[in-house]
Specification:
The chain has 437 residues and is of the alpha+beta class. The protein has ten helices and twelve strands. The structure holds adenosine-5'-diphosphate (ADP).
């Protein structure tokens, strides 16, 4: 064989061997790539043919790396699950947002404050937690310039939610440049509402006390300065005015005391078996004899079959008296007032109905609120404190009942209250008695 042919054959053999090896190495690289992508350990025997020590070492090192990555991933998942379980059991709401304002973590307690945050994970927080104040707070926390604790208002469909927010910046766990922020939120809406109610109450009481006190002060000063030279008639008039305003102060303080007792932890309810029709008939008899009721027609329609119920007779008497006083106060003389008692849906329902001026529909939802009056001047002129219906509502509520009103302007009003009928054992009373004593 000529030498040139021999050389050509040798070159062809070398090329064939090199190509074979290259193909094996290419397949080995492919196997490695797949192992990394699938995160599956690569076994030496799965490498296509023997490739030599360096390949074996690469295969072992890659497999070890894959194992380590899997172990770290499991560890992280475990930690996250642990963190989520811990945060989930916290009563405080926790929120973590990343550098792009996306929610990374939010626990169950956050959902209880803001129910629409159920799918907030991965979303920008501003979409669900609306409020300029919180946005400012987030920016301040990231800059490390936030107050340690802030009260933040979130506006939701006209209703505000007040939250006490404690925030801290945390390093960005995604390797980004912008700091993350962690917040602990505590719902203080109830406290805020109570504070507002207390402020309103103090303002109302001060306002109610100011008028009679300034009248009394003015008249007393005038009397002190010149009672000797003052005509007897004027002196009497001044004294009568002082007495009237003192009486007003007295009624106001009495009503306030009653209300504060009713709202206290121990409202002093003395329950006993009470015959409602008898109690109402007694109150009406008492009223017929009063000068305030002269000129009014008081009628009663009392179902005698209402079984004795468990109630505080003095407090129920006060409820009926407050309703009757109002009917007499706001209804012109000569008109009719009806007191009814009947059984309805397992409850005893009492109604005081008048044919007076009625109450505008816009005022009806507020009529049982403290100090709410339809006509302020008229109520004060009639000696009203604005607390009578509030006392009625509290007493009835303490008995487990409800109060409501129906009214048509120019035709009259009907005030109703209900009392549960289920009477305790031993509630039966001898005929003719309204209460157990
Ligand atoms: P007040 O001491 O002013 O009577 P209440 O709490 O008893 O306070 O009643 C609140 C307001 O409801 C009254 O000021 C009055 O405007 C209105 N009101 C109550 N009862 C009647 C009624 N029978 N008819 C018309 N208005 C009434």
């Amino acid at each position: 064989m000529p030498p040139a042919t021999l050389i050509a054959l040798a070159l062809a053999a070398a090329l064939g061997w090199a190509l074979l090896r290259l193909r094996k190495q290419y397949r080995a690289v492919q196997s490695l790539q797949q192992a990394i992508v699938r995160q599956q350990r690569l076994l030496r025997e799965n490498l296509p043919g023997a490739l030599g020590g360096a390949w074996d070492e690469l295969c072992d090192a890659t497999s070890d790396l894959i194992d380590e990555t899997a172990r770290l991933r499991e560890l992280r998942a475990g930690h996250l699950a642990q963190l989520e379980a811990t945060l989930g059991s916290l009563r405080e709401a926790v929120l973590v947002i990343d550098g792009g304002n996306r929610v990374v973590l939010a626990n169950q307690a956050l959902q209880e404050i803001f129910p629409h945050t159920a799918h907030i994970l991965g979303q920008r927080f501003e979409g669900a937690l609306r409020g300029v104040a919180f946005l400012t707070c987030v920016e301040a926390v990231r800059r490390g310039a936030a107050e340690p604790q802030q009260e933040v208002e979130f506006g939701e469909g006209g209703q505000s939610t007040w939250v006490e927010v404690t925030g801290a910046p945390i390093p960005p766990l995604d390797g980004g440049k912008e700091a993350w922020a962690l917040f602990v939120l505590h719902d203080i809406t109830r406290q805020k509402k109570l504070e507002a109610m207390r402020r309103e109450f103090v303002a109302n009481v001060s306002h109610e006390l100011r008028t009679p006190l300034s009248v009394i002060k003015g008249y007393v000063e005038t009397l002190a300065d010149g009672h000797r030279e003052m005509p007897l008639e004027d002196r009497d008039k001044f004294l009568r005015t002082i007495a009237r305003h003192t009486e007003r102060l007295n009624s106001l303080l009495e009503d306030l005391l009653v209300l504060s007792r009713l709202e206290s932890a121990n409202p002093g309810l003395r329950r006993e078996p009470v015959r409602l029709p008898g109690l109402l008939a007694d109150v009406l008899d008492d009223y017929r004899a009063r000068p305030a009721a002269v000129g009014h027609q008081l009628h009663a329609a009392l179902d005698p079959d209402i079984a004795p119920l468990s109630a505080d007779p003095l407090k129920i008497t006060q409820v009926v008296e407050n309703l009757l006083d109002n009917a007499l106060k706001y209804t012109p003389a000569g008109t009719r007032i009806d007191v009814e008692a009947r059984i309805h849906n397992g409850e005893a329902v009492v109604t005081v109905r008048d044919t007076g001026p009625g109450i505008p529909a816009a005022d009806l939802p507020h009529i049982f609120e403290r100090f709410y009056r339809v006509e302020k001047g008229r109520s004060r002129e009639k000696g009203g404190t604005g607390l009578g219906l509030s006392i009625v509502k509290h007493i009835v509520q303490l008995h487990g009942g409800r109060t409501w009103v129906e009214s048509t302007l120019g035709q009259g009003s009907a005030f109703h209250f209900s009392l549960p009928l289920s009477s305790p054992p031993g509630a039966a009373l001898p005929p003719g008695k309204t209460t157990a004593d």
